[in-house]
Amino acid sequence: MAILVVADHDNGTLAPATLNTVAAATAIGGDIHLLVAGSGCGSVVEQASAVSGVSKVLHADNPALENRLAENVSLLVAELGKDYSHILASTSTDARNTMPRVAAMLDVDQISDIISVVSEDTFSRPIYAGNAIATVQSNASIKVITVRSTGFDPVASEGGSAAVEAVASNHDAGISSFVSEELAQSDRPELTAADIIVSGGRGMGNGENFELLYKVADKLGAAVGASRAAVDAGYVPNDMQVGQTGKIVAPNLYVAVGISGAIQHLAGMKDSKVIVAINKDEEAPIFQVADYGLVADLFEAVPELEGKL
Amino acid sequence: MKILVAVKRVIDYNVKVRVKTDNTDVDLTNVKMAINPFCEIAVEEAVRLKEKGVATEIVAVSLGPKECQEQIRTALALGADRGIQVQTDDPLGSLSVAKLLKAIVDEEKPDLVLLGKQSIDSDNGQTGQMLAALAGMSQGTYASEVNVDSGKVSVTREVDGGLQTVSLNLPAVVTTDLRLNEPRYASLPNIMKAKRKPLDVKSPEDLGISVSSTLTTIKVEPPAERQAGIKVASVDELVEKLKNEAKVI
Ligand SMILES: Cc1cc2nc3c(=O)[nH]c(=O)nc-3n(C[C@H](O)[C@H](O)[C@H](O)COP(=O)(O)OP(=O)(O)OC[C@H]3O[C@@H](n4cnc5c(N)ncnc54)[C@H](O)[C@@H]3O)c2cc1C
Ligand SMILES: Nc1ncnc2c1ncn2[C@@H]1O[C@H](COP(=O)(O)O)[C@@H](O)[C@H]1O
To answer: How far apart are CA A190 and CA A186, in angstroms?
Structure first.
């Protein structure tokens, strides 16, 4: 049987996380079909059909799918999914919103946030904020899975030539509607796709002081993240939160500034290749995971760092 | 309007868990347990809706061994009116929890069901969405703002790119994110009062649900430990190391 991967997109661009999800599907093995469900999403379909390893792209285009409301998309995915051995999606907020609904409609358990594929029915995933890794086996007829991107190297976005098939898409549960969205505008790289991330915590003191980090980030071509404390205090918006209950990242370089290193924060960044911590408290737990620790007042160290890059 | 709130008993979020030496599970003996932080936010939101005159009754539900009555009592002390415990010692996956909650929804017919977005032990993040599917309800996950108005609920959701607002027909399921509210502390008089509030105990059999799972945990292991690195003395040394040793900038 084949594997259905649900693509992440915004009707215009295929999200990079889909390439990591296809990589997980490749590790399971089998024919891989990529579902693009949206409205006016033809350009996504084009990008999807070029993804390496995908044999078929299913294209569902309907106004009811425009904002990817879980009530509507899950009807489509559960209907198509009956013919597959596995249904995979990333751990984006869209997929996390929709996939458990799909699993319940198919009457199977979902396996959330896998970081490795042991075999076609066995997977490992972090639990307890990454303080333990569980290996779980599923005997469900259809395995519904979300994939943590940092666990899988992406497949190539080019080189494939999948056939495209239009599928019925009149799936409207009629119980919810989209009102509005406020998306953060930024010229910096997206957190989950960035090579370098500079993050600030409560130690930044206020939102204006994040300017110091933006300047460093712009010199490094980095994304900017934050701890929960910095988001809760209103210094920066919620989409910048890194951690157990925020975004999970694993860049080449993660610079934590004025962040103490609570387990919930570490859960979101401790798989980064190189970690730097700048904190004035030499006992801060962040130093236990940092490759390079600098005990200093950030208001002196960060401007100096910016000057020397 | 009636609100059902699901509260889960989990390890306290301040405790660092350890994996058992036989790799079967994490060690929970003598570990401090508490209400899942996201469920606490759900209870707080229900209480605020009642204080605003939107809600008339709050029912707190927990599923699990006898001890989870403690978390129901916490919810009652925070302002819930009565509790329901579904008692079972069997391990419960999110799908089983959702099926049991669906059976309670059928009996109680709430207008709004509030759950946490995620349990901090399993880190599943599934139950609310599953319940919504089984009950044919709309869902507003990762809520940072909830407004009930003329038969609908408007939910502002924390999504990857920022914030999204949806309008949901009632009855609806809402799952809470961190910024929805800041939970209050229970006062001593309210803790005392909570002891006298009604708490119904049921079994999965009473609800006609058999608890089973398609998942088996084969092993539980500690994560790869990260070695602490070195302290650098200056910004110059840091930049030098990042350029020449780590080669990341
Ligand atoms: C259910 C739940 C989910 C959570 N999810 C997340 C999550 O996803 N992500 C997350 O990050 N947290 C999360 N948390 C919160 C977490 O427990 C911590 O409270 C939070 O990470 C602390 O943020 P912080 O390090 O910025 O603040 P603090 O712990 O207050 O640390 C501030 C640090 O800044 C340093 N500092 C202050 N001034 C200076 C200065 N001038 N120069 C240098 N250093 C300075 C201090 O020494 C201190 O170490 C969660 C908590 C719960 C209960
Ligand atoms: N055993 C349980 N008892 C009561 N509520 C639960 C239980 N398990 C999960 N929930 C609810 O579902 C939410 C999400 O859980 P999960 O899907 O396990 O991450 C929790 O925050 C609770 O509101």
So the answer is: 8
| Pocket residue to mutate for ligand 2, from B92, B97, B173, most atoms within 8 A of Cβ | B97
A98 in a structural domain: yes
**Minimum-distance CB partner of A133 among B215, B223, B248:** B223
Q: Are B84 and B202 contacting, i.e. CB atoms less than 8 angstroms apart? A: yes
Is there a contact between A200 and A230 (Cβ–Cβ < 8 Å)?
Answer: yes
A30/A130 same-domain check? yes
* B85, B68 Cβ separation under 8 angstroms: yes
Min CA distance, B51 vs chain A (Å)?
A: 24
For the record, the structure tokens of A208 come out as 């204006």
Q: What is the mean pLDDT of residues B128-143?
A: 98
pLDDT digits (tens, 9 = 90+) for B169-206: 999 999 999 999 999 999 999 999 999 999 999 999 99
Angle, nearest 10°, between helix axes A93-105 and B127-135? 50
| A18 and A120, same domain (yes or no) | yes
pLDDT at A1 over 80: no
Instruction: Return the pLDDT at A21.
Output: 98
Dig out the tokens for A13 from the structure.
Answer: 């661009």
pLDDT at residue A151, as a whole number: 96
Chain B interface disruption, residue of A93, A94, A146, A304, most B CBs within 10 A: A93
**Residue A233 maps to which CATH number?**
3.40.50.1220
Same domain, A159 and A199: no
Is residue A264 one of the residues assigned to a domain? yes
Contact A253 B169 (CB under 8 A): no
CA distance B195 to chain A (A): 31
Q: Mean pLDDT across the stretch B23-34?
A: 95
| Single-letter residue type at A211 | E
If one counts the domains in chain A, the total is 2
Q: With 0.95 as the threshold, say if the pTM is over it.
A: yes
Domain boundaries, chain B: 2-223
Q: Report the residue from B17, B163, B177 with minimal CB separation from A128.
A: B17
Same-domain pairing of A129 and A54: yes
Contact between chains at A175 and B168 (C-beta distance less than 8 A): yes
Which run of H or of E encompasses B145?
strand B138-149
Give tens-digit pLDDT for A112-123.
999 999 999 999
Nearest Cα residue in chain B from A236: B162
CB B129 to CB A101 under 8 A? Answer: yes
Tell me what pLDDT residue B228 has. Answer: 83
- Distance from the Cα of A5 to chain B's closest Cα (Å) equals 19
In words, the CATH class of domain B2-223 is: alpha beta
Check B235 against A301: CB less than 8 A apart.
Answer: yes
Please state the φ and ψ torsions of residue B17, each to the nearest 5 degrees.
-80, 155
Note whether A155 and A229 are same-domain residues: no
